[in-house]
Amino acid sequence: MLHTPTIFVLVFLVSAILAVALAFVAQPKHPELRWIAAATGLNALTYVFFLLRDLQFDAITIPAANATLSISYALFAEGIYRFLQRPAPRARLWLPVPLAILVALLTLNDPATRVVALSLINMAQLAMIVIPLWQSRQTLLGRGAWLLGAGVVAVVAVYGARALLAMLDPLQLVFITASSPSQAVPFVVGLAGVLLIALGTLVMIKERAEWVHQEAAHRLAVSERHYRQLIEAANEGICVLQDGRVRYANPHVATLTGYSAGQILNKPFLDFIHEDDRAEATHNHMRRLLGEAENERFTLRVRCADGQMRHVEVSGVQYEWQGRPATLNFLTDVSARHAPEPARTPSFSS
Hints:
Layout: H1 4-26, H2 32-51, H3 58-83, H4 90-94, H5 96-106, H6 111-135, H7 143-168, H8 181-232, E1 237-242, E2 245-249, H9 251-257, H10 261-264, H11 278-289, E3 298-303, E4 309-321, E5 324-333, H12 335-338
Helix pairs in contact: 1-2, 1-8, 2-3, 2-8, 3-5, 3-6, 5-6, 6-7, 7-8
């Protein structure tokens, strides 16, 4: 025989532990989970009032138990609406709470009517959890919504069964702590339903986080692809320097210097600089790594594949390449400015 008070203690402990765990997980990234944690905690408190029914303080324990239970369902619905980022119809969510308390007070001596009336109120509250799920069905995919829905269905089935039993055999429900299947089984199923609701919410949050991560990764990949296309199509040389070596060079760098990509990548950048300009190049590169020369331009002589020297104006910014410090540099050919002027041919006037 199932011992109903023991089941109440078990339900209280499981719900209380779950509430603490949900509250811990909620910090700080999932504020909507705080509502679910609060709802689970109030659901646990409900079973404390159920246990106190044997003390014959019905005028206190019955309204208190139904108040905490009704509030917990309103909090569950609030959490789901917030998670789905839909406006919550607060009048419909919270109006059943004072109604449940009023019904509990008016039916203290009529347990059958109380069970039927409160079951209908609680079922209506649980429907408010399903409504936003249904409204978001086009975008809400995954196992979490199904688990949550299954939990709601389980709890609704419990209330439906209790309401039907109250109408057919009211004496079965007079003593809530009686150790009988008609009392114990619904509470076990109800606990399973609450656990499914909480678990479904957790899974939904996990699935949303994975979806957001995937979307962010996709957008980043698209952005990087577009960015690379712009860089590779640029009409000036662009390169990344890290640890004194060329880690990336766009096609225009090869055009500018005459070297192939294989001859440029991962080679010391000073190999391409005129000996007399290497000290200045190193000095400015180190300053740029420290973020001290981001708006400065200077001119270097670059050694090309054919042995000639080109005058290149260099500008750039501090940069991060594959998670480590680097510099992003822009190279503009200004050789024309430094070309010697052609000698003038003397003219003779007659």
